[in-house]
Specification:
34% of the residues lie in helices and 15% in strands. By secondary structure, the protein is of the alpha/beta class. The chain has 2 domains: 2-152, Rossmann fold, CATH 3.40.50.720; 161-192 and 222-274 and 291-334, Alpha-Beta Complex (UDP-galactose 4-epimerase, domain 1), CATH 3.90.25. β5, α3 (124-143) and β6 form a beta-alpha-beta unit.
């Protein structure tokens, strides 16, 4: 098989390319060459820009295309339409953010989705979910029954550029035994995420089978709680901190940001939040999951080995609460309500 990957040098894409190469397939990677340009010297590198700079694709043909870097419908439509007659299959990595806010459980692939913003509105941070819907539709219009739409939830593991899972395993590692660590109550709240390596292996199997349709690619197979996740992170770190489960109304009143402040936390009464996502269709097509313990161990090992990333990324996507701020909130929680 010859595979064209649009992207592939950051997080999920690098794992897909890695497993594709291990399987002995030929890979061409179309990138701007800005991030990890020498990551896979055995893969063919094609340099260009998806927004108006597709010339490097020439008149080449591939068995399949994997699109890991599409965020704007206009841009995705350009590549999908160009490759319609040159590839037999197109996989687009979308997101569970496409779904309209709901508290229904579970949210399946036929759930209501957001409408794309008007043409010309392309602010990704503000309209991420709606833009992804527009991208999906562009791929489906070009490839029809040869289009595979993958909707992951939170992708975690080594090389995660967001810190949204890494925060917890590193916070546990940095804590002394018995030290207080702030977490959002209740410990029994459900959380969902998928290791990038499990997702990558499944995507390749779906491409090999020329599978089509829409799939929620989230984990795990059984219900996982916040308490279990933090226990796994502490175990991976070899630490025994004392987790302080602060009420979410208290956290919100003290301006602790859900999701990006304390990762994995979405308030239960958030009108813009989501219920759990139904992953049974993907599981029935072979999606499987390693243990959260393994993901936590590997993520910590990677985090400890990499250069210091700094407290905040320039694009604002670096998750986690500062130790100073965490201490202030813990102190307020321990103090309890003010005397009448």
């Amino acid at each position: 098989m010859e595979l064209l990957v649009l992207g592939g040098t950051s997080f999920l894409g690098r794992y897909v390319v890695e497993v594709v190469l291990v399987c002995g397939y030929r890979v061409a990677m179309f990138t701007r060459g800005c991030m990890n340009p020498d990551l896979f010297p055995e893969a063919e590198g094609l340099r260009g820009d998806r927004d108006g700079g597709l010339a490097a694709l020439g008149d080449r043909s591939w068995d399949a295309v994997l699109d890991t870097s599409g965020y704007v419908p206009r841009v995705v439509a350009a590549s999908a339409e160009l490759l319609t007659a040159r590839a037999g299959h197109y996989t687009f990595i979308s997101s569970e953010s496409v779904y309209a806010p709901t508290t229904n459980t579970p949210v399946a692939e036929d759930g209501s989705v957001l409408e794309p913003p008007p043409e010309g509105v392309e602010e990704i941070a503000e309209h991420y979910g709606g833009l992804k819907v527009g991208c999906e539709r562009a791929v489906q219009a070009a490839f029809g029954d040869s289009a595979l739409i993958v909707r992951p939830g939170l992708i975690v593991g080594p090389h995660d550029p967001t810190n949204r899972f890494t925060y917890w395993v590193r916070r546990m590692y940095d804590a002394a035994d018995g030290e207080e660590v702030l977490a959002p109550a209740p410990p029994g709240r459900q959380v969902q995420f998928i290791d990038a390596r499990d997702l990558a292996a499944w995507i390749l199997r779906m491409i090999e089978a020329r599978s089509s349709g829409v799939y929620n690619a989230d984990g795990p197979e059984r219900m996982l709680t916040m308490g279990e996740t933090l226990t796994a992170c502490a175990s991976a770190a070899g630490r025994a901190p004392r987790v302080v489960w602060a009420g979410e109304r208290f956290l919100l009143d003290h301006e602790v940001e859900p999701w990006m402040g304390l990762p994995l936390w979405i308030p239960e009464d958030d009108p813009d939040g989501f219920g759990p996502f139904d992953n049974r269709a993907a599981v029935s097509h072979g999606l499987s999951f390693r243990s959260v313990d393994e993901t936590a161990r590997d993520t910590l090992a990677w985090d400890l080995a990499r250069p210091t990333a700094g407290p905040v990324r320039a694009d604002g996507m670096w998750a986690g609460i500062s130790r100073r701020r965490e201490g202030e909130v813990l102190a307020a929680w321990q103090a309890g309500p003010p005397a009448p």
